[in-house]
């Protein structure tokens, strides 16, 4: 995977279909976008070609059709996009992002427990590394 992968909403929707369904034809991706996005098959093909040029997907010829598959993983895309968001909006400070999320979102009790668990795990990692 490239160091940084930023996707538009539509590109992300396409890649999510490939993550969920695996290798898919243009028609299968087009159908996977319905009913939220009704796009022409040629538009979907163009989007997949552009994603392929960026190294996000690749295709293989199966019979007479291209089957596209994702070359990037969901965790890698998430890490890249959240990192870019953190840099652009929060001066690269994860604490500022977390503070914003907690202050501006309806937080469920289970979510708070998960955040506390993650903080405890991070503290253990930092202690183990001697920082």
Walk me through what this model shows.
- With 131 residues, the protein is mostly helical.
- The chain has two domains: 9-70, Arc Repressor Mutant, subunit A (Orthogonal Bundle), CATH 1.10.10.10; 93-128.
- The chain is 63% helix and 9% strand.
- It contains six helices and two strands.
- The chain has a two-stranded antiparallel ribbon with strand order 1-2.
- The radius of gyration is 19 Å and the shape is elongated.
- The two termini are 29 Å apart.
Keyphrases for this structure?
131 residues; mainly alpha; Arc Repressor Mutant, subunit A; 2 domains; two-stranded antiparallel sheet; 2 strands; 63% helix; 9% strand
User: What oligomeric state is this?
Assistant: single chain
For the record, the CATH class of the largest domain is Mainly Alpha
The percent range for helix content is 55-70%
Number of helices: 6
From the spread of the alpha carbons, the general shape counts as: elongated
> Mean pLDDT, nearest integer?
94
Number of domains: 2
Number of strands: 2
Give me the side-by-side strand order of the main sheet.
Answer: 1-2
Content-based structural category: mainly alpha
CATH fold-level name of the largest domain:
Arc Repressor Mutant, subunit A
Report the end-to-end length measured between terminal Cα atoms: 29 Å
Strand content: 5-15%
Q: Mind telling me the C-alpha Rg?
A: 19 Å
The CATH superfamily name of the largest domain is Winged helix-like DNA-binding domain superfamily/Winged helix DNA-binding domain
What is the CATH architecture annotation of the largest domain?
Orthogonal Bundle
Stretches where pLDDT is under 50 for at least 5 consecutive residues are none
The secondary-structure element order is: HHHEEHHH
Major sheet attributes: 2 strands, antiparallel
């Amino acid at each position: 995977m490239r160091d940084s992968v930023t996707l538009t909403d539509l590109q992300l929707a396409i890649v999510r279909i490939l993550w969920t369904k695996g290798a898919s034809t243009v028609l299968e991706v087009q159908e996977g976008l319905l009913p939220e996005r009704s796009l022409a098959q040629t538009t979907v093909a163009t989007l997949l070609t552009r994603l392929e040029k960026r190294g996000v997907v690749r295709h293989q010829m199966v019979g007479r059709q291209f089957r596209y598959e994702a070359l990037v993983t969901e965790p890698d895309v998430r890490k890249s996009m959240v990192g870019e968001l953190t840099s652009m909006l929060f001066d690269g400070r994860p604490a500022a992002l977390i503070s914003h999320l907690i202050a501006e979102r309806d937080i469920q009790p289970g979510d708070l427990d998960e955040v506390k668990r993650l903080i405890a795990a991070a503290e253990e990692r930092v202690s183990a590394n001697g920082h």
